[in-house]
């Protein structure tokens, strides 16, 4: 059974009044536990596709189904609630909250879900121990390296046990070794926790580890392997 699928997915942007077809009728099905990389040249539509799959952006035409829910039918507040409960996000720029410590950043989404301070602290610290970043608990983002920030971002993305983690160019700001370590971590999460990962990336290191590779060109899936 698919965890997420699309039907005739289109996304059209306006550029100074000129329509730009970022996605051109994408039919896609992703099953629970897949480790998928969306690749393609700049402007191919890979980040747009990831954003639409992650309910960060709405399609111009077509549908996105999460299990039996049609995301195209949901209102803004419903989509926000859906993202909080079902999805985790890892961004190229980390997107940690600067004034919060690593521990507080990881706890933040649990706080939004109304979990108790005790539960938040225990769960976040246990995850930081598991990911070998417990020593960062009291550090703020400006006191951490890029690789450390991204590992905190991974912890934040998975702390609520999401169905899917969306990762947009997660290694772009990291050196090869640090990026490789991060990918090792995400592969482990995929294997041990059966978390579905969907990446958008042009990094060959990410692409080479894909269990499934979707290659986009001009808003269309050119290759699915």
Q: Secondary-structure element sequence? A: EEEHEEHEHHHEHEHEE
How many strand elements?
10
Main beta sheet: strand number and arrangement?
6 strands, mixed
- What is the CATH first-level class name? Alpha Beta
What would the average pLDDT be, to the nearest integer? Answer: 94
Uncertain residue ranges: none
Q: Give Rg in angstroms.
A: 17 Å
Gist?
This protein is an alpha/beta fold and 225 residues long. It has helices at residues 46-53, 76-86, 102-112, 117-130, 146-158, 176-193, 204-208, and strands at residues 2-15, 18-31, 35-39, 61-66, 69-70, 87-91, 164-168, 196-200, 212-217, 220-224. 36% of the residues lie in helices and 30% in strands.
Write the layout of secondary structure elements.
Blueprint: E1 2-15, E2 18-31, E3 35-39, H1 46-53, E4 61-66, E5 69-70, H2 76-86, E6 87-91, H3 102-112, H4 117-130, H5 146-158, E7 164-168, H6 176-193, E8 196-200, H7 204-208, E9 212-217, E10 220-224
Parallel strand pairs: 3-8, 3-9, 6-7, 7-8
Antiparallel strand pairs: 1-2, 1-4, 4-5, 9-10
Helix pairs in contact: 3-4, 3-5, 5-6
């Amino acid at each position: 059974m698919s965890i997420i699928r699309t039907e005739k997915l289109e996304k059209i942007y306006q550029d100074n009044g000129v329509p730009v077809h970022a996605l051109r009728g994408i039919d896609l099905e992703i099953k629970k536990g897949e480790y998928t990389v969306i690749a393609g040249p700049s402007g191919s539509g890979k980040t747009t596709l990831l954003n639409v799959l992650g309910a960060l952006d709405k399609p111009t035409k077509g549908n996105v189904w999460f299990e039996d829910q049609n995301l195209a039918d949901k209102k803004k507040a419903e989509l926000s609630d859906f993202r909080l409960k079902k999805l985790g996000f890892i961004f190229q720029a980390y997107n940690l909250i600067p004034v919060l410590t690593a521990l507080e950043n990881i706890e933040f989404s649990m706080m939004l879900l109304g979990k108790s301070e005790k539960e938040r602290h225990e769960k976040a610290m246990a995850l930081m121990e598991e990911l070998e970043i417990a020593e960062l608990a009291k550090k703020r983002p400006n006191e951490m390296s890029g690789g450390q920030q991204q590992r905190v971002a991974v912890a934040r993305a998975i702390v609520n046990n999401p169905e899917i983690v969306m990762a947009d160019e997660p290694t772009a700001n990291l050196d090869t070794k640090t990026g490789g370590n991060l990918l090792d971590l995400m592969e482990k999460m995929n294997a041990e926790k059966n978390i579905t990962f969907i990446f958008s990336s042009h990094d060959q290191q990410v692409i080479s580890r894909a269990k499934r590779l979707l290659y986009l060109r001009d808003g269309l899936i050119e290759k699915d392997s």
